[in-house]
C-alpha cells in the first residue's frame, strides 16, 4: 500500500514487446511477417487492424496510384491480416478481431471519395466476417468495430465544420479514443462509435431522404468540411515541389 502522497506503483511484470515492419498493403509482406511472428512470438489471439492513409486530393486531381494505395492499406489489408491469423483462432475457437474504421465508414462527406470508400469497405468486411463467425458458431472469437469521429492526430489537419458547432464536436484526443476502444474490446462490445453523437448521425442518415441529409450536412458544415484540409495538403505539395525545383 502506498504511503501518503505516494502513487500506487504497479507490480513489476516481465513483458516483452516485439515490433515488425510490414507493408500491410502487400499481401506477400503480410503473410511473411505473420509467419515470422508465429515462429518468434507464437500465435496471435488479438488482431487489431488500425493502419490508415488518406490521399488528400479531390477525385479528379488524385493520382490513380494514391487511390490504389488508400484502398490497399485501409481495406484490402484487412483481408490479408485476417487470413493470416484467423485459421488458428478458428482452430482454438478463441480470439478477438478489432477493426479500427472511421465514422466516414458509416456516412460520407465530399472530397475524400477514396478514404470513404475504403472505410465503407472495412466496415462491410468486418460485419460480413462477424456474421460468418456467428454462422459457424465460433462464439469464442469476438469482433469489435471501432468508428471514431475526427481524431486529433494531424491526419486530417485543417478539417473544419461550422464554427458554431465546433465547440460541441471538437477533434477527439487519441488517448480518449484508445480508452473507449479498449473498454469496448475488454467487454466484447461489437461496435463503438465515439462520440456517442455519431450513433445519431448514422441513424438520421439511414432514415432521412438524401436531400434532407444534404440539408443536415450543410447545417453542420459537414458538407465541405474536408475542403480546408485538401487545400492545405495541396499548398504543402506545391511548396515541396517549389523547394525541390520541380
TrEMBL record:
The keyword Nucleus does not apply. It is a single-pass membrane protein. Keywords: Endoplasmic reticulum, Membrane, Microsome, NADP, Oxidoreductase, Signal-anchor, Transmembrane, Transmembrane helix. It holds the Pfam family adh_short. One of its GO terms (cellular component) is lipid droplet. It is found in: Endoplasmic reticulum membrane; Microsome membrane. It is an enzyme of class 1 (oxidoreductase). InterPro entries: NAD(P)-bd_dom_sf, Sc_DH/Rdtase_CS, SDR_fam. It catalyses: all-trans-retinol + NADP(+) = all-trans-retinal + NADPH + H(+). Pathway: Cofactor metabolism; retinol metabolism. SUPFAM superfamilies: NAD(P)-binding Rossmann-fold domains. Belongs to the short-chain dehydrogenases/reductases (SDR) family. This is NADP-retinol dehydrogenase. The gene is Rdh10.
